[in-house]
Amino acid sequence: MPRSRRSRALVVAACALALGCVGELDAGAAGPAPPQACDPGTIGAPVPMRRLTAEQVERTVRDVLELPASEPLAVPDERLFHYRSNISSAIDVAMARGYLDFAESSASRADVSRCSSSDACLGWLLDDVGLRLFRRPLRDDERARYGALYADASTHVGATEGARWVLEAMLQSPTFLYLDEGTDEDGLLDDHALASRLALTLWGAGPDRELLDVAAAGGLSSAEDVRAQAERMLDDPRSEGGLSDFVDQWLELHRLDSTSARPDIAALGPDVLAALRSEPSAFFRDAVVGGRGLRALLTSSETPSFDALASIYGDDVVEERDGTRVLDPEWRAGILTLPGVQAALSHAESTSPTLRGYAVLAGFLCTPPGPPPAGVSVTLPPPMPGATTRERLELHFSNETCGACHRTMDGIGFAFERYDWLGRSRDHEGDREIDDTGTFALGGREITVDGAIELADHMADDAAVAQCIARQWTQYATGIPTTSATSCLVDGMARDLRGDTGLREMILAQVTSDWFRRGGEAR
């Protein structure tokens, strides 16, 4: 049905009014800087007011309105280090239009058949949809405002269309789009704020009705209460959302989507691209749900089976069983050797030891090298006939300015040279046998490895790797960088990670900590 000019004007006005409040709400949200000593009994994560990411908005709306799919939300996210975290940029006119278009599209496809009765319709809008979108019960003034909008719209365009007006307004409200986290007198997040933070971390979406009911009953008041809900949420299929958000950003899998930079991947078709992106997240989630630790994450040769990747794995597959692909342990070991990860860290139809080495330094050791000095050319010389990628890169080593970073970065990356630009295993580059030895510093000592399998084995035993992954998860979960104030929490999470059930315990330790459960410094 064509939308009337009055309807469009009302919705735009509601959007402008709602978004106009954001600046006032956001002022001073970060609060004072936390003290430097780590005391999780008094210090909370100093999280500024965050705007939900596009993925979080899309998942929540699909879930609440029971939509099979949604059009992408055309609003960009900020990135803080590896992770999307909307904590500083204001909403401009183009972004507001993106939210408006998304709200209209979502509301137009929502099932509003129950709105033939005004009472039933308002009950659904305010006590179900509003509760789940706003992640808390609506206040009396909000109920009155949305009730009045529904009554006015119903008079002009009918009851079902009036319900869509209310949905559009709710989907553009800062209460939905932003996390306005309330705290109790003891400095802990109130139960609804904690439910929201927990769900957005573990599911990448808003809380379900069960979690909201627990929050309404005061059932998230202790670490034990939070752990019980977190256990349930990790075992729920919806944890695929939050865990995939983490892995996707941590391992830079978004690089696969660039059709301009990677036309080679695009040419393989959407099924292959989807499988390349999905397998690392599924591998990680299986490790979390199955209660496996750091060694399994970095060295396991079993992975979820995706049909579209069968030809990429080729002879590396030893066995297929119950949705699991068992791989040759001489060729594949852990998440870093999955085709999607290696393809994401390549250039179009050529490998990149530099990108691969940088990814290990930044994402697994938390020691990324800085940018090259000003005036230094980073362009490789033209390839000599028959020269390998390794031989071209080693030319950097003769230049001390370049070699200072590239010896370690490329030294790690060379260990992955037996995987081509698509992550396929290989023995040769052209007619030359591949040299995948690498020498680099790890854990304060110089190490030489013979390929990716040996590298993964070293990393699985390294305390610095465990601590870095714990830091990565903590930054993802709160959208802020870790500081010295979180050192004891990260240390404890790293110890959990190195245990047999490590990944799951690492996540549970973080979401049940006082640091996660507080809204900043106790007041």
Automatic annotation (TrEMBL):
Residue span(s) of domain DUF1588: 332-429
UniProt keyword Mitochondrion present: no
Domain of life, per lineage: Bacteria
Xref: InterPro entries: DUF1585, DUF1588, DUF1592, DUF1595
UniProt protein name: Cellulose-binding domain protein
Residue ranges constituting the DUF1592 domain according to the UniProt record: 189-314
Signal sequence bounds: 1-29
Record key words, sorted: Signal
Keyword Signal annotated: yes
Domain DUF1595: 126-181
